[in-house]
Structure formats: C-alpha cells, structure tokens
Write a structure and sequence with these properties.
- The structure is a single chain.
- It is built from 16 helices and ten strands.
- It is α+β, with helices and mostly antiparallel strands.
- β2 and β3 form a beta hairpin.
Length: about 375
C-alpha cells in the first residue's frame, strides 16, 4: 500500500549500478568505485519507514481505510514523495473547492474580476450545508470575497455553487486538469447541488430534478427512512418503487462513479502547483494561502495532531463515510523552512468524529515520524 517515490533519474541510475556491479570486470576494479556509485543512489528517508509502521498500526485499528500522500517541498529540486493507498480512486468531497478558488484568483489576477465584485443570491443557489451564505435573503448581493472565504474556511456549499455559476463549470474543470500531470488523476468536478442529485438519482432517476431547497428539507429529517419516504412523496411514486433500499447504498453507487473523485497523489500535485507559485502569481498565491490558513472546519483533523509549531493552509472535505483534509504544512522560516503537501482521507466509517480522530492520529504520526526534519 505504501510507496516511496524516487526522483525520475534514479531508476535508470539504479539499473546502471546493477549492471556494473554484476560484471566480473567491475568486481575486480576496487571498492572505491563501488562506494561512490552506491552513494549516488538515493536512499529511502528514515521518516518514510517510521511512517509506514505507524500507518499500518493505525489502519489495523480502524474499521475503514486510510489514504495518504506526502510531498516534501523545498528540497533543492529533489522530489520526496510518499504514498499510502494514494493511487487508488478516492472521493474528494469538498477538496474540489480548491480548484474553484484557484480559477477565481486567476480571473482576479488577469483583471477580469475583482474580489469586490458582487453576485446576486438567487433561490436556485441554496444548497444544504454549513456556512453563512444560507442565512442571506434571496436577492442579497455578496462580494466574491464574501463567497470565497466561507467556501474555503467553513466549506460553504451555497457560496461554492454561486462561484461555480459565475466562473463556469467547464472553466473550473479545465483549471483543475491543467494542474495535474495525468488527466485521469482527477475526475470531473460538479456543482454541490449536483452531488446531491447524483446520489438521489441512484434511488430514482427523477430525483435529479430536485432543487437545492428540496435537499435542505431532506437535511432536516432525522433518519434515512424518513428521507426515503419524503423522497417518494415528493416524486409522487410508491416507496417500494425506489431502486435501492437505503441511502447508504445510494452513496456507494455514487462513489463508484468518477465524479468529484481522484487519486491523492494527483490532488497533491495540484496543491504543489499552488504552493510553488506555478498555479498563480505571487500576490494571488499569497492571498489564497492566507485564506486557507484560516480554515476552521478541520480543527480536529490533521492540524490537531501535527502540533502548534506547524502552520497548515488547508481545505477539508466531508461526505457520507468519507472524510478528507489536505493542504500545505510548513515549519520554520527562511532557509530553515520545511514544507510538505499533505493529502489524507478516510473511507468506510459512518461516524465523522471517529474519522476525525483518525486523521488527527495521522497528523501526529506524520509529525513524529520526522517529515519536517529529515532530508529526502
């Protein structure tokens, strides 16, 4: 499950070393050449070995699965990457709001928009979830900044869909694809209201016509059985005509698609592009990093385990049996600064608090393994 990713030139160098070491001529050429060649082949950092052991123990005591990708930055151009189930497809939940933010800041940088520009909130924009935007009255005018900040810091779904409507979903997806090497690394991003529609259409195809206000009403109900009965009444169909018998089955069917999903190593590439100033210019990067540093929706996740001396600019994602946290962690200043892109998710566990405890334990394992101390 885990893998240590070497810099691109090292597999060829290792093959060359093996061929020479296997040669009878090489065997008689003296130990000095052998020592110099072996020293030129990178060794696996000690922190990856320690982290391997810690994650194996954590997952063994967890009812679900863990996915982790680490990318150490500031290492003189040498890649230092580590993965645990990171090349499997994962539902990313609200992590997909990061490319929405990058697309918006690219527009601001290009001069086609400013964060003081205003959008009108219509009834069609409302989506269930956290954040202040749902408390604004229809017809309210909100600045792009008033939408961007809660979208990232408290994962405001209504703010997200307003921004996607403004930017265009195709533009958001093109931006996301431009920031990863493998086009199959990230699946298509949808609006947040369409996430709900795709889930409920697994129960009945006509559910795709439900509005955001319908999903707010569904959210108010206490049990899944009540939600299924409400859905049948709302669609005017018999309860036993629903195609699946539980919302859990509907979510699992939805997760089997590639919508709003991707590999954790690919999402780490997107974050690395942001962190290294390749996704945006210096000013826009700095502004977005400040906003991400103010995220409050993940206080009990990775951040809780990494310690007070680690700064974390990050975004969380939460959905049925899926919990994620991802961002850029840093320690120290100037030439002593150590940074790492961290993407971590859990799946399979219904209890969000339990998943958050596991992510906090992952954060602690990362810190104590020496990610911020060892050279690659």
């Amino acid at each position: 499950m885990s893998r240590w990713i070497l810099p691109p030139h090292l597999p060829l160098l290792a093959l060359f070393a093996f061929s020479l070491l296997a040669s009878p001529l090489w065997a008689t050429s003296g130990a000095g050449w052998r020592d110099r060649l072996e020293a030129s082949v990178a060794t696996v950092p000690a922190w990856t070995k320690r982290l391997d052991a810690r994650l194996a123990l954590l997952e063994a005591g967890f009812d679900g699965e863990l996915g982790v990708h680490i990318w150490k930055l500031d290492n003189a151009g040498q890649e230092a990457r580590y993965g645990w189930r990171d090349r499997e497809p994962w539902y990313l939940a609200s992590l997909v709001k990061v490319p929405v933010a990058i697309e918006l800041m690219a527009r601001v940088e290009a001069g086609s928009a400013t964060l003081d520009d205003r959008l009108v909130l219509y009834e069609s924009h409302y989506v269930d979830g956290a954040g202040p935007t749902n408390w604004a009255a229809p017809g309210s005018e909100l600045t792009l900044r008033e939408l961007l900040e809660p979208m990232l810091t408290v994962s405001d779904n209504t703010a997200s869909d307003m921004l996607i409507d403004f930017l265009g979903l195709d533009s958001v997806n093109r931006r996301a694809q431009s920031l990863v090497k493998d086009p199959d690394g990230l699946g298509p991003i949808t609006t947040l209201v369409d996430v709900r529609r795709h889930v409920y259409r697994q129960l009945h195809p006509e559910a795709f016509a439900l509005s955001g206000l319908d999903f707010i009403e569904l959210r108010k109900l206490e049990s899944d059985e009540q939600r299924l009965r409400w859905l049948a009444r709302r669609l005017g169909v018999a309860h036993d005509s629903l195609q699946l018998t539980s919302l859990d089955d509907a979510f699992q069917a939805y997760y089997a698609t590639d919508l709003n999903a991707g590999r954790l190593d690919a999402f780490a590439e997107l974050l690395a592009e942001l962190a290294e100033g390749r996704a945006l210019g210096a000013d826009a990067t700095a502004e977005l990093m400040v906003i991400l540093s103010g995220t409050t929706s993940g206080e009990r996740r990775l951040k809780a385990g990494m310690g007070r001396d680690i700064r974390f600019a990050h975004k969380t994602g939460t959905q049925h049996r899926r919990t994620c946290d991802a961002g850029i962690a840093s320690q120290g200043e100037g030439s002593a600064r150590q940074r790492a892109v961290i993407v971590a998710c859990t799946r399979g566990v219904l209890n969000v608090a339990r998943s958050e405890q596991m992510l906090a334990a992952v954060g602690r394992a990362l810190y104590e393994s020496g990610v911020f101390l060892d050279a690659p």
